[in-house]
Amino acid sequence: MHHTRRVGGSVDDVREVEVVVVGAGQAGLSSAYHLRRNGFAPDRDVVVLDHSPGPGGAWQFRWPSLTYGKVHGMHALPGMELTDADPLRPSSEVISAYFDRYERTFDLRVRRPVDVHAVREGPAGRLLVETSHGTWATRALINATGTWDRPFWPRYPGQETFRGRQLHTARYPGPEAFAGLRVVVVGGGASGTQHLLEIAPYAAATTWVTRRPPVWREEPFDENAGRAAVALVEERVRQGLPPRSVVSVTGLPLNDAIRRGLADGVLDRLPMFDRIEPEGVVWDDGRRVAADVILWATGFRPVIDHLAPLRLREPGGGIRVEGTRAVADPRIHLVGYGPSASTIGANRAGRAAVRDIRRLLAEEPAAA
Fold first, then answer.
1. Which of 71, 275, 308, 348 has its CA 20 to 30 A from that of 26?
2. How are beta strands 13-22 and 46-49 bridged, if at all?
3. CA triplet 204, 298, 324: central angle to 5 degrees?
4. Using CA atoms, how far apart are residues 179 and 169, in angstroms rounded to an integer?
């Protein structure tokens, strides 16, 4: 039953719904689609909140040179294929347009931009979702906030003395911005290697540093390899450890571009430097590399601070999750967290979360 009521005479309206979905990227839209198919009506039973300016999830912020043809394994949302996309168009445009069409086709009524500040325990077994646009009292919450808004910046001695520019993948402008500059790229994942291969033809010099030696994968990445990788990430979240990226488990595919980069020395990897100086980076063995730019391709962390009032984190630093359900609170589902952070994983997880939530709501009749 949807109604608006004032709490304690404040002007802050608390709106009651059955389910709140936070985030409208792949995981959030998949969840919203499965809720809709299971009879949850938008605005009455379910509300989808997204803090981005428009449709497209994190894709809308990707750099222009990441064309749709370079996106590996973007899996279609449930119920609607992405067809006839121009591989030369920026993925940010292609996927934003696709998500926009998807939201309208299934009438998902995403509210944006809405910032979710906190989720806390409310009256009558409900959760209170406090946002920049008022508060919702809900019986279940699907958290689909992804990682894009929490770029991870490692700390190194002397970082603040560096005279050049430091930036993260999250703000990567494309390769032309590095013309004539000496660039150090930090990070052994897909972004780091993509950045290097793009920047090398423009830059005066590139240096690649990673904490661990990169693992190249010769064999094709089939479904069995994918399942094994996801299982390893899943085991971490089951133990309440922070999830690691799937690529840290799978290694990097040896495609033609990578082979060329290895042959011409662009992908000649150095171990992590020990400190940063005003003019560049330094190793304890005396090696120095002069740099104008340090590009941190060091990944992202889950955006879950708004859940802090519920105290779901384990001593290991992560939230223990079984399937998509937070072990400490069955009303909370984390979709697109850990093992479901891939696009196909997010689709499956959205369906699984909705199945669980239907069961939960059937067991516990709404408080009158």
1. 308
2. parallel
3. 150
4. 17
CA distance 278 to 272: 17
What distances in angstroms separate CA 107 from CA 103, 256, 344, one per listed residue? 6, 42, 22
| ∠ Cα 332 318 157 (to 5°) | 140
Burial of 269 (0-12, 13-18, 19+ CB in 10 A): middle
Residue 90 tokens read as: 């920026």
β-sheet bridge partners, residue 13: 6
How far from each other are the two terminal CA atoms of the chain, in whole angstroms? Answer: 9
- Beta-sheet pairing, 13-22 with 134-143: parallel
- Helices 26-37 and 343-363, axial angle in degrees (round to 10): 40
Q: Which of 121, 190, 163, 169 is nearest to 329 (CA)?
A: 121
Q: What is the amino acid identity at position 308?
A: A
Separation of alpha carbons 170 and 149, rounded Å: 8
Residues 14-73: pLDDT tens digits?
A: 999 999 999 999 999 999 999 999 999 999 999 999 999 999 998 898 888 888 887 765
Q: Judge if pTM exceeds 0.90.
A: no
Query: Quick one: pLDDT band at residue 141, thresholds 50, 70, 90?
Result: very high
By the 8 A CB rule, do 291 and 279 touch?
A: yes
For 174-233, give the DSSP string.
Answer: -GGGGTT-EEEEE--SHHHHHHHHHHTTTSSEEEEEESS---EE-S---HHHHHHHHHHH
DSSP 242: P
Q: What is the pLDDT of residues 283-310, one digit of tens each?
A: 999 999 999 999 999 988 888 999 999 9
Answer yes or no: are the C-beta atoms of 145 and 22 closer than 8 Å. yes
354: helix, coil or strand? helix
